[in-house]
């Protein structure tokens, strides 16, 4: 045998000894006892046996039964015991960063190790992985990018795809790729793990792969719907109560306070039922989304939640409370409100925690730990707490019935982000979270008739999101024709969505006319940001104004650092206006705020600066670290002068150049500006009239002295809104809007000409003709 094999063998034996040592230690013993108590343990042998005999297996089981933490570990342990420890290479994907990180940490602890030894994780732009790491938890996106570099996943022995029931876009995509890969890699093993029971769908997708179910024990959970909750908690619905936030306004407005409770209750039920009938929200068509969103605005009934929580804290037996909210904004506002409450805000009685994707790990641990006696733990979470994390001591669940869901309106080519009703499967899942340690209670804050009208399962993400990044990935993975490839998905997306995405990629110059990847497209596919943001980064490097552009892109991919506390809105707005500095650009406003913070950090006064200017230090730090990653990636791609990296900032102070690069990146996200006497009319090519979010610096001005605004994103809420924008001039749009590389200058001008004509800017038509002539003359010379 070769030296190499000998080394592997020695290493494998070492790993075996080390594992045994841990199992023999008292802490290891304790851990093993805990692990043996999980339902998955009873199925361990059956699982391993089935995996030895089949290339693909599907495993389903209740959340918390030990799929994520145990199954990958069983495989690792059995490989180590068979003295193959050093050659196995197990990858387990997670749909979310936080679960990849927290699960890896947990599994390392269960093995008595530190992260980065045999167990590691890798998420976008961050990771903890050593040379001996044999079990890697990563996000699905990370595995997809790895496939980009190594189509056959050489060296990988096992792939475990977790939480497939969620039907995320990346997971559905990965399944197509893996299905294609399996015949080429007969030794590769694939495990699909799912929480709910539609395992047959996946099994048949993989040609009848065997399905193993882990029977789990959960205690019964009593479900209460709104009508019972009102009865048990004695909450009285009043006119204009916060409950209206649920949008059942019409219904409740009909009630008179003098009417008896029971009568009111039946009225609610029937009125809601009418609404349900008439809006038919069983379907997910766009129209339905719209009527639902009218029916049901963003925020949820905080006062009702507060009331229910108060009821639990005062009257119910001990046990943690898990509250499902729609999003981070809601969680934060509710947290603020609860903290001001005499009972719920009392830290000697209540431990109030928020559960969020990017929270610090110390805070994370608090969520899992059992609090001291007499202290009531209340965790506010998004639907992430439905399946990917398990908090053991939860006895009470409060379910607002909604989740923010992205959807995609292919007809208008517009992404929508709306709080939508969850599915029956989700509601059941949320309820189940209460029965982990003892019988539980679940408060569904909506009437039973609304629940009855929920759809059974959520629509897969592939069918409700724009497909641009995905199409780019298909091309760079050389998976052939985009539409043909996507037609092999578990459920294929609409042809129109695919067509829109391909058109878009052509417009920005990532694909040529024949749908082949361009040089730009190739570069974009390796940058871990949306295609347009990648394009902006590349242009920022080429035009040597990288610093501000990196800030803009990082800001757009993290979130805004500007805080708007409800009670200090005016102060916060005027702080932001300072940064806006009459540039008519949200993007440049962010650059100013960030640069100021960087300077303050240098004088050790970063926190003070944030405090004074209503900025989130945490977000600024996230932007900062993302910027650093961008820099290295661009350097790797040879877009930055290796000898003189500082050259990439020669023109960073030139605001108009930065504006132009922003325009080049965001095109065709553009609308025309018409300043009217009292208002400003904005118009895009597709939607006609659009509105600015009030948080935009351009949202509150009376006049915008630019003929155009470029924007990152439009979102359909009730009307179409654009979130952030930058004003650009005619000539900047003519020179930087569109794509010079694919159709040549002429094609570029033609396309732009089409846009301009459409938007009917007669004044610009002249400029266009002149510019075109000048440019043509220039070229002839
Ligand atoms: P599943 O993937 O089937 O939902 P997990 O493997 O995530 O289940 O969790 C199994 C059990 O491990 C949970 O019920 C919980 O008791 C325990 N567990 C998981 N993560 C942690 C953690 N970070 N800290 C403490 N216990 C944990
Ligand atoms: Mg899991």
Write the layout of secondary structure elements.
Layout: H1 3-24, H2 26-36, H3 39-42, H4 44-53, E1 56-61, H5 67-81, E2 90-94, H6 97-110, E3 119-123, E4 126-128, E5 135-139, H7 140-149, E6 158-161, H8 169-181, E7 189-194, H9 199-205, E8 211-214, E9 221-224, H10 226-233, H11 249-254, H12 261-279, H13 286-295, H14 302-315, E10 320-324, H15 328-339, E11 350-354, H16 361-368, E12 376-381, H17 384-387, E13 394-399, E14 402-409, E15 414-421, H18 424-432, E16 440-444, H19 448-452, H20 468-476, H21 482-486, H22 495-507, H23 519-526, H24 531-542, H25 546-557, H26 569-580, H27 586-602, H28 606-613, H29 617-636, H30 655-666, E17 670-675, E18 680-684, E19 688-692, E20 708-711, E21 714-716, E22 720-722, E23 725-728, H31 730-736, H32 740-758, H33 762-780
Parallel strand pairs: 1-7, 1-8, 2-5, 2-6, 3-5, 6-7, 9-16, 10-12, 10-13, 11-12, 13-16, 19-22
Antiparallel strand pairs: 3-4, 14-15, 17-18, 17-20, 18-19, 20-23, 21-22
Straight-line N-to-C gap: 70 Å
Helix fraction bin = 40-55%
Bulk shape: globular
- Number of helical elements: 33
Radius of gyration: 28 Å
Strand elements, count: 23
Bound small molecules, deduplicated: adenosine-5'-diphosphate, magnesium ion
Major β-sheet profile: 8 strands, mixed
Average per-residue pLDDT, rounded, comes to: 82
Proportion of beta-strand residues = 5-15%
In spatial order, strands of the major sheet run: 4-3-5-2-6-7-1-8
Q: Uncertain regions: pLDDT < 50 for 5+ in a row?
A: 237-300, 740-744
Query: Could you say which structural class the secondary elements and strand pairing correspond to?
Result: alpha/beta
């Amino acid at each position: 045998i070769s030296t190499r094999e000998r080394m592997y063998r020695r290493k494998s034996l070492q790993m075996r000894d080390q594992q045994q040592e841990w199992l023999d230690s008292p802490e290891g013993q304790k851990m093993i006892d805990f692990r043996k108590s999980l339902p998955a343990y009873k199925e361990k042998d059956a699982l391993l046996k089935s995996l030895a005999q089949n290339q693909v297996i599907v495993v389903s089981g209740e959340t918390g039964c030990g799929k994520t933490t145990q199954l990958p570990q069983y495989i690792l342990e059995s490989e180590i015991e068979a003295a193959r420890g050093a050659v196995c290479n197990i990858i387990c994907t997670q749909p979310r960063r936080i679960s990849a990180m927290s699960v890896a940490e947990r599994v390392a602890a269960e093995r008595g190790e530190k992260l980065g030894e045999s167990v590691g994780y890798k998420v976008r732009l961050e990771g903890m992985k050593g040379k001996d790491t044999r079990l890697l938890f990563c996000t699905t996106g990370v595995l997809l990018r790895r496939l980009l570099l190594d189509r056959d996943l050489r060296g990988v022995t096992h792939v475990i795809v977790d939480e497939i029931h969620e039907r995320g876009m990346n997971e559905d995509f990965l399944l197509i790729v893996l299905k294609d890969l399996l015949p080429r890699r007969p030794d590769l093993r694939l495990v699909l793990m799912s929480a709910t029971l539609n395992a047959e769908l996946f099994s048949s997708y993989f040609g009848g792969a065997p399905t193993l179910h882990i029977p789990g024990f959960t205690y019964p959970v009593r479900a209460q719907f709104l009508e019972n909750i009102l009865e048990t908690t004695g909450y009285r619905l009043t006119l204009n109560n916060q409950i209206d936030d649920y949008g059942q306004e019409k219904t409740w407005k009909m009630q008179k306070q003098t009417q008896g409770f029971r009568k009111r209750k039946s009225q609610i039920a029937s009125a809601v039922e009418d609404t349900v009938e008439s809006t038919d929200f069983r379907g997910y068509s766009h129209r339905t989304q719209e009527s639902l969103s009218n029916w049901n605005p963003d925020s949820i009934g905080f006062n009702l939640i507060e009331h229910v929580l108060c009821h639990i804290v005062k009257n119910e037996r001990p046990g943690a409370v898990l509250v499902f909210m729609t999003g981070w904004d809601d969680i934060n506002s509710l947290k603020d409100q609860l903290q001001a409450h005499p009972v719920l805000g009392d830290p000697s009685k209540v431990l109030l925690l928020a559960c969020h994707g990017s929270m610090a790990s110390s805070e994370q641990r608090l969520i899992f730990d059992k609090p001291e006696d007499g202290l009531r733990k209340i965790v506010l979470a998004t639907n992430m707490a439905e399946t990917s994390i398990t908090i053991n001591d939860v006895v009470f669940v409060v379910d607002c019935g909604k989740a923010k869901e992205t959807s995609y309106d292919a007809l208008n080519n517009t992404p929508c982000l709306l709080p939508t009703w969850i599915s029956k499967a989700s509601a059941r899942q949320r309820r189940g979270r209460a029965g982990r340690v003892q019988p539980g209670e679940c408060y569904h804050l909506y009437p039973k008739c609304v629940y009855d009208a929920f759809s059974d399962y959520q629509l897969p993400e592939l069918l409700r999101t724009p497909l641009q990044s995905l199409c780019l990935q298909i091309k760079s993975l050389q998976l052939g024709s985009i539409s043909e490839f996507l037609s092999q998905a578990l459920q294929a997306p609409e042809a129109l969505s695919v067509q829109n995405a391909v058109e878009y990629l052509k417009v920005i110059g990532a694909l040529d006319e024949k749908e082949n990847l361009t040089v730009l497209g190739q570069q974009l596919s390796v940058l871990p940001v949306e295609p347009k943001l990648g394009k902006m980064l590349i242009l920022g490097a080429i035009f040597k104004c990288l610093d501000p552009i990196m800030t803009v892109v990082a800001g757009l991919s993290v979130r805004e650092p500007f805080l708007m506390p409800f009670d200090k809105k005016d102060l916060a707005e005027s702080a932001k206006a300072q940064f806006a500095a009459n540039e008519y650009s949200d993007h440049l406003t962010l650059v100013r705020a960030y640069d100021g913070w960087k300077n303050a950090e240098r004088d050790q006064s970063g926190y003070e600066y944030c405090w004074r200017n209503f900025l989130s230090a945490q977000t600024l730090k996230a932007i900062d670290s993302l910027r650093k990653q961008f820099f290295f990636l661009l350097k790797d791609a040879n877009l930055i002068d290796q000898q003189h990296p500082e050259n990439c900032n020669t023109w960073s102070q030139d605001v108009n150049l930065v504006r132009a690069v922003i325009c080049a990146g965001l095109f065709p996200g553009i609308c025309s500006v018409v300043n009217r006497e009292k208002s400003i009319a904005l118009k895009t090519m597709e939607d006609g009239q659009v509105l600015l979010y009030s948080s935009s610096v351009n949202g509150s001005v009376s006049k915008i002295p630019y003929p155009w605004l470029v924007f990152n994103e439009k979102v359909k809420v009730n009307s179409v809104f654009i979130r952030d924008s930058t004003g650009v001039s005619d000539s900047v749009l003519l020179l930087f809007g569109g794509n010079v590389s694919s159709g040549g200058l002429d094609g570029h001008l033609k396309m732009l000409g089409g846009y301009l004509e459409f938007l009917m800017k007669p004044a610009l038509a002249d400029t266009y003709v002149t510019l075109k002539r000048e440019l043509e003359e220039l070229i002839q010379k």
